[in-house]
């Protein structure tokens, strides 16, 4: 097995990460992409799966961590197709009967009373792709340059596909036979870019978001080699130095030939199996067939468009159906405390989710509504100069919800959240 000496993160490493094609307008998001989005939370997070059986670790020339990071940053695979097997295990608590993480004041978000998409846009990417936040899933992915991408979630008896072909973006849910049509958003230069839902669902996207955040708070090393989807790869290991972080390590298998990340694994500091791991089981860097990106709504399918979406006041929503004035997470007033691995997102929920959110003057318990009951039943009570609140924990991410509706969330310890809220 080829081994390489550990190399710690340096300014050179950080520079390599920043060169990975990140648009200036997105750098603020990068600061909290690790630990929130990259960890699979803000993001809606992505996947676990192992590669095809290895016949032994390949014997490759030694390479430094800085050079391997630079190789990833320079990788520009415009064409590829393959299968990614993903699983996410955040250790989220079970929701009480009748209540889900996506519930809002009007009931189940994006779904009718039966929770089957009745009376709603069942093909909307914002509703469908949240399913990747837990469990094991198989994705088929394809790309042919910046204007053509396809991502399909393959289920036992159904398939969900998100297809970008030029300016047109189609989302199709075969289970409900519904189609959602939209227009590709514009990038910082006025050109069309891939929708957010088509980014972040592969080992490459996860790896590049992580590497973009590498700085002097990070230890980076090359730890041997591996065989992933039949291709030789180097193993890049990234570890936070900050004690408050709940991230143990991120391991990225990098294609030895073209620098494309083939596998991404995020392990929690507490040990146990990975929280997030996305791996190609098959990959081909040739040009996909043209009809891969062609789509025509099936006969009888219900088609909705972004322009059909309305906000609560009857005005048109943004390009992806979200209300204007809200950030990417659908929450207003986002503030980021700290940096790098110990970044904490602070915001106030639109309707409030503290124990008093369910009814005017309520203090929790039965009178606090579903959200209050959830807090009392699943969260641990904490207090500080901010007052009191509840801390909710997963295997990676902790969240503090204060009684007045403020939320502090990050891949950090409980004590770090209480300290941030008390400032």
Tell me what the structure shows.
A 13-stranded mixed sheet has the order 1-8-9-10-11-12-2-3-4-5-6-7-13, covered by helices on one side. A six-stranded antiparallel sheet has the order 14-15-19-18-17-16. With 423 residues, it is of the alpha+beta class. The chain has two domains: 7-293, Lipoprotein localisation LolA/LolB/LppX (outer membrane lipoprotein receptor (LolB), chain A), CATH 2.50.20.10; 329-422, no CATH class. The N and C termini lie far apart (49 Å). It is built from seven helices and 19 strands. The relative contact order is 0.17.
Give the tags.
423 residues, alpha+beta, outer membrane lipoprotein receptor (LolB), chain A, 2 domains, 7 helices
Q: What percent of residues adopt helix (DSSP H or I)?
A: 10-25%
- Globular, elongated, flat, extended or rod-shaped: what is the shape? globular
Total number of helices: 7
How does CATH name the architecture of the largest domain? Clam
CATH superfamily of the largest domain: Lipoprotein localisation LolA/LolB/LppX
Strands ordered across the widest β-sheet: 1-8-9-10-11-12-2-3-4-5-6-7-13
The unreliable regions are 5-55, 95-120, 308-330, 357-367
Distance between the termini: 49 Å
What name does CATH use for the topology of the largest domain?
Answer: outer membrane lipoprotein receptor (LolB), chain A
Largest sheet: 13 strands, mixed
Oligomer: single chain
